[in-house]
Input
Amino acid sequence: MKRILTTFAGVGLLALSTTAQAADFAVDKAKSTITVKAKATGGGFTGTLKDYRATISGNASTLKPSSAKLTWLFKDLDTKEKKRDAKMLKWLDVGKHPGGEFTLKRIFDKKVLGKEQSYALGTIKIHGVSKQLVFPINTAKNGNALTISGQAVLDTTDFALPIIRMALVATVKPKLVIDFSLTGKIK
Output
């Protein structure tokens, strides 16, 4: 449940997607995914962000975003188990903090194992706490279609959220993995 916060962070990461040369990138939510994976004692679960708002602009020739903002409501994170989702929303204190956001500061390239890799640097806000986040992204263009993908890891304790423990033996790990793949068109 606490990992759901990470999923939202994952959604924020998706907002880092790139856009066209002095153009905007319109995300096709039907072809895009933002998921949050949580591990727990004896297993784990995955949540999918069903709705979000992404505003992304950038350069079509380099496929790099110059600005991006992703916002979401935690109620739109679905783990396919209503009871778990309800507990997650309580844990996130959605009455005070109903959503999260990710704002891109910049994209930079770095050589990793002799190969250029693009990274997104931005600020993610969850549970009223803002943290800097850096993660690798990949972009692929096919005609007027663009896909931006990547993976980020968040620690829910960085956002003043307690570790979830149940029956003194089961624990939801505070590190969440956010995977995203945003596909859309360059406007």
